[in-house]
């Protein structure tokens, strides 16, 4: 695999092809002028070059990207031991709302209606809720989907109700032991908090998601956590397990060699009592693994186990994908495929009955209630070892002032993107916004970053300064 060293070059996609040797140029990250289903071509091309575009691959076949992050603040009310933010990130002022609205428009232009925008940070709830309401309404107006990614500290039921009324679609709660929350000493302890967050979001019309960072300190608790998610599956849509990566300002011990994707998958399978993961592709296999479960009464079964059958379904859906939209209309495709091939629809019914039979005891216990739950592993890359094929096959992008970029590549060079002068358009011409000062000037000005005061330090910088002070005091 080609290795990308931060600061040297980052693979860009132009005209549907991957250029792995392009010298870094911020202008090169501008999106190509594709439209409709052609907007899938860059991702499809990246997956093909990586040898990942197989018959069970959904990325690039049915959608051009899984999610695009819109970072609205770098501020956070936690100090995670595996934080992906840079040490200087919280010195950046909040991006002006007009620039964020422009980035929403850019995401629509790049990827089309149906794309999910993750409103994130830092923790986005530290920004005025009125700004988030404006963003949610604009996102919905363009036919896009919105997801709020938060640690949940400020996300009360009243807060989430306001955003639901502003047409927020999803809320994703990130909760795990790397956050070092006061009074919680294990993932088991944190289940009380997870339960409260579910209660706060339930019944508001929001899809509820949970993210968990997996590291050596909570690896043994993953089966227990999966059992918790199974018990609450009727209220959840997706749970994601994000593996430790050496990026950002985190100061956790280096990743243990035993922490592999295969080991995490084994723990997930053990917890749900179901096979995991499926062979269905949601991007590069080194970046993500996926399965979709039926859950009832604590029992779970994958609906994607029969790969021969799933391959037939993928082919049928691809043939029925005639809308020309960048993000395929799954409901329309399913109906169309069923009409075209009634035998396939009948086989689908039989596969469903087979899956339900495997969890019949759970269905009886749950009085007939069966929930669906998506489960995935997300493996971010280390900042010092970015792989060009994986960057070019990325399904989790972030929108920068220069266009969309792989989240892993962005994290490796976060300060470069945060503090570069950002152009603002107006009726009087162009001006430039400086993230370090918040000032808008007629000409671009470079950020002059200095170490923050000790009380504002976070992550590795704070740990090192605390150590220095302790040694000095001896």
Keywords:
3-stranded antiparallel β-sheet; iron-sulfur cluster binding; 2 domains; TIM Barrel; 15 helices; single chain; rSAM_sf; 11-stranded mixed β-sheet; 474 residues; catalytic activity; globular; 34% helix; alpha/beta
- In CATH, what is the class of the largest domain? Alpha Beta
Annotation field: number of helices: 15
**Integer average pLDDT:** 91
Report the portion of residues in β strands. 15-25%
CATH fold name of the largest domain, please? Answer: TIM Barrel
Give me the secondary-structure category: alpha/beta
Low-confidence stretches: 1-32
Whole-number count of domains: 2
Q: Indicate the overall shape.
A: globular
Rg from alpha-carbon coordinates: 22 Å
> What does the main sheet amount to?
11 strands, mixed
Strand tally is: 18
**Distance between the first and last residues' Cα:** 48 Å
Strand order of the largest sheet: 11-10-12-9-8-7-6-5-4-14-15
What is the CATH architecture assignment of the largest domain? Alpha-Beta Barrel
**What helical percentage do the residues reach?**
25-40%
Q: CATH homologous superfamily of the largest domain - what is it?
A: Aldolase class I
């Amino acid at each position: 695999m080609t290795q990308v060293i931060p600061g040297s070059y980052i693979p860009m996609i132009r005209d549907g092809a991957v250029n792995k040797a392009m010298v870094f140029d911020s202008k090169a990250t501008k999106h190509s002028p594709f439209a409709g289903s052609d907007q899938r071509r860059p991702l499809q091309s990246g997956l093909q070059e990586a040898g990942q575009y197989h018959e069970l691959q959904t990325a690039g076949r049915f959608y051009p990207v899984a999610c695009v992050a819109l970072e609205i603040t770098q501020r956070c009310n936690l100090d995670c031991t595996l934080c992906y933010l840079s040490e200087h990130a919280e010195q950046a002022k909040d991006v002006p709302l007009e620039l964020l609205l422009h980035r929403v428009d850019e995401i629509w232009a790049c990827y089309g209606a149906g794309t999910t925008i993750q409103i994130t940070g830092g923790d986005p709830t530290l920004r005025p809720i009125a700004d988030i309401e404006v963003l949610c309404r604009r996102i919905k107006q363009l036919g896009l989907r919105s997801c709020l990614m938060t640690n949940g500290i400020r996300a009360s039921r009243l807060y989430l109700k306001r955003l639901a009324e502003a047409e927020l679609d999803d809320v994703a709660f990130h909760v795990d032991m790397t956050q070092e929350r006061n009074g919680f000493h294990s993932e088991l302890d944190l289940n009380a908090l997870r339960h409260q967050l579910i209660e706060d979001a339930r019944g508001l019309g929001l899809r509820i998601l949970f993210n968990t960072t997996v590291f050596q300190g909570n690896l043994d608790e993953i089966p227990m956590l999966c059992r918790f998610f199974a018990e609450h599956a009727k209220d959840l849509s997706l749970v994601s397990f994000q593996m430790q990566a050496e990026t950002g300002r985190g100061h956790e011990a280096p990743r243990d060699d035993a922490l592999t994707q295969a080991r995490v998958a084994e723990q997930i399978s053990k917890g749900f009592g179901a096979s995991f993961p499926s062979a269905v592709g949601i991007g590069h296999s080194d970046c993500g693994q996926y399965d979709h479960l039926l859950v009832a009464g604590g029992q779970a079964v994958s609906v994607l186990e029969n790969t021969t059958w799933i391959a037939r379904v993928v082919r049928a859906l691809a043939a029925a994908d005639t809308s020309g939209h960048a993000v395929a209309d799954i409901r329309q495709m399913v109906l169309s495929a069923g009409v075209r091939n009634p035998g396939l629809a009948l086989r689908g019914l039989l596969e469903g009955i087979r899956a339900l039979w495997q969890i019949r005891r759970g269905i009886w216990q749950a009085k007939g209630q069966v929930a669906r739950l998506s489960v995935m592993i997300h493996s971010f890359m280390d900042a010092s070892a970015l792989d060009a094929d994986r960057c070019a096959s990325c399904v989790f992008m972030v929108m920068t002032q220069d266009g969309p970029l792989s989240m892993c590549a962005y994290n490796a060079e976060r300060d470069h993107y945060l503090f570069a002068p950002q152009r603002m358009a107006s009726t009087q011409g162009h001006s430039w916004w400086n993230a370090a000062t918040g000032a808008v000037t007629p000409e671009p000005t470079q950020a002059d970053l200095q170490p923050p005061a000790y009380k504002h330090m976070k992550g590795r910088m704070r740990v090192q300064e605390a150590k220095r002070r302790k040694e000095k005091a001896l």
